[in-house]
Amino acid sequence: MSRNITRVGVVGGGQMGAGIAEVCARAGLDTVVCEVDAVAARAARDRVAASLERAVRRGKLAESAARDTLARMVFTGSLDDLADRQLVVEAVIENPDAKTEIFAALDKIVEAEDAILATNTSSLPIMRLGMATGRADRVVGVHFFNPVPVLPLVEVVTSLHTSPETVDRVQDFATGVLGKTVIHSRDRAGFVVNALLIPYLLSAIRMAESGFATAADIDTGMELGCAHPMGPLRLADLIGLDTVASIAESLYDEFREPLYAPPPLLQRMVEAGLLGRKTGRGFQPTTRAEDLVRRGLRGTRPPTGVRVPARRHRGRAGSARAALPAPSRTRTPQVRPVAPRTPQVRPVASAHASGPVLRVRHLTIRMTDALLPFDAPRRRLVGAAGSSRPPGGMS
Length: 395
Ligand code: CAA
Description:
By secondary structure, the protein is an alpha/beta fold. It has three domains: 185 residues, NAD(P)-binding Rossmann-like Domain (Rossmann fold, 3-Layer(aba) Sandwich), CATH 3.40.50; 120 residues, Orthogonal Bundle (N-(1-d-carboxylethyl)-l-norvaline Dehydrogenase, domain 2), CATH 1.10.1040; 54 residues, no CATH class. 36% of the residues lie in helices and 13% in strands. A hairpin with an 8-residue loop joins strand 6 and strand 7. Helix 2 packs antiparallel against helix 3. The relative contact order is 0.08. The site of acetoacetyl-coenzyme A has 17 residues, from helix 2 and helix 9.
């Protein structure tokens, strides 16, 4: 039945849309990619062409096959060009309003009665998109993973209205035509993979934010200690920090669990336009050359782009971190001799006091800080009694 699907449309030609379109065209399907305008459509074509060239360079694809793949693709700036499609996969940014608008428009444009409207959303409810159309039974989540040509998984997500026939058709399409492996999820924010992955990425960001460990060490820890292909911060850079933040917000909206709340550092980086690979700056070096240097130096301290907030490297010129707020000025302890000089524990009262403090020579360390979670400063250093300072770190 899925073999019937020979004409596919993809809305959005960014990282994910271009990848989805590429795998469809490589599977022999007539593929139309729709972008917001002709310029963006051209950029989408360049993205696919670059990926095909890479496959040719790596000896995975014959030059003639790459040419044929591109010849099967049309890049357009008009949704109307999707009218004759049998399957349309929407892959635009994780913005509920934008997606809803596109589904309402597709419902009017796509002509075939049995055409399926799918979304590659990472976390938004499929039901909301289905209800924007008059065919909620033929609206389904088909969630690919980045890089799409490499990662073999597709999550198929069904809303309460999605028909079993629609599920069968997209499952057959993803496995039989695209050669992917399918897992199924109910319509809950994050589905299976992101519900597990995103809290892990957010924990890594909180860990870097608090100064618990450097970005480089966090990634190296998970790459070498747990054999992950890339550490959580490099992975967040790959996914796109704006996308990670959007998914976190959807998860938080749905479940109201603190572990899903996007940390302030993530939000600041998104506001600063430091989105990871797509903008060339994120937590880690993003060029291939920088990455190779990093890998070559495993076992020693790797050079990184953004170290957050590694106090010992504070102020190093040329670091992308320079674009971030200065992390630790407020963390520098004031060195003032206090008497007596022998350690002793005694409580102090101050606006920030939450427990007894240990005075060690000229420093005062709050005892409760040892019990703080890793996203809080490990040691809150204060000067003389009564002059306690708020926690430092990135803000
Ligand atoms: N397109 C096509 N092929 C690619 C590619 C791309 N963008 N990136 C890498 N590859 C291929 C390479 O050609 C290479 O293939 P061969 O070995 O057959 O030549 C292979 O993948 C390995 O690539 P590299 O040697 O260049 O680099 P690597 O070994 O570091 O692998 C990686 C890169 C494939 C990205 C790997 O690090 C990886 O799998 N990382 C984890 C990615 C991941 O977890 N993605 C899921 C993100 S979550 C998501 O997408 C869902 C969401 O909603 C947020």
